[in-house]
Write a structure and sequence with these properties.
24% helix; alpha/beta; 7-stranded mixed β-sheet
């Protein structure tokens, strides 16, 4: 609801200076407690590469600082360079699972049954498109799946014709 005579401001999750600092290797999380888990995504991650042993440990360390101990990470085997069954991160064993979740999603498990879904921005995504996709993914009102967010931000997405040529 807005006051009379004022225009609504678009919701912004993070200050502009944080968006400018987002680069490869960054994870953005929506750390808002909600009564329901109906949103499709809990955050976004922009890895530098598809090397699991290089990329997962810093992600787990960052997530652990905000969420508590991470016990499992679910990845799509077709999108990553070899997925071991486990990694030791900060002296803790983190189990890695291979799921057909799509190359645009990583599933994070905290404890026994608390799951988080992160959109994965492809490593070679241009910075402006990656920042826009990540900002959209962490909006509390987002109802678009990761693939849709990434497709919408792809270069030339608006000019892509629909249907057969």
């Amino acid at each position: 609801m807005t006051d009379a005579g004022t225009s609504p401001t678009p919701p912004r999750l993070l200050p502009d200076e944080i968006h400018r600092a987002v680069g490869p290797g960054t994870a953005l999380l929506r750390l808002e407690t909600t009564g329901s888990r109906q949103n499709l995504l809990d955050g976004a991650w922009w890895p530098r590469s598809r090397d699991v042993e290089r990329e997962i440990p810093p992600l787990v360390t960052a997530l652990t600082a905000h969420l508590g101990p991470v016990t499992r990470v679910g990845l799509d085997a077709s999108a990553w360079d070899g997925i071991p069954t486990r990694l030791v991160v900060d002296d803790r064993v983190v189990h890695l699972d291979s799921f057909p979740v799509g190359d645009d999603t990583v599933l994070i498990t905290r404890g026994d049954n608390d799951h988080f879904s992160l959109m994965v921005v492809p490593p070679d995504t241009p910075p402006e498109a990656a920042r826009a996709a990540m900002a959209r993914a962490v909006r509390a009102d987002n109802v678009t799946q990761a693939a849709g967010i990434l497709l919408a931000g792809a270069p030339g997405a608006a000019a892509t014709p629909r249907g057969p040529a």
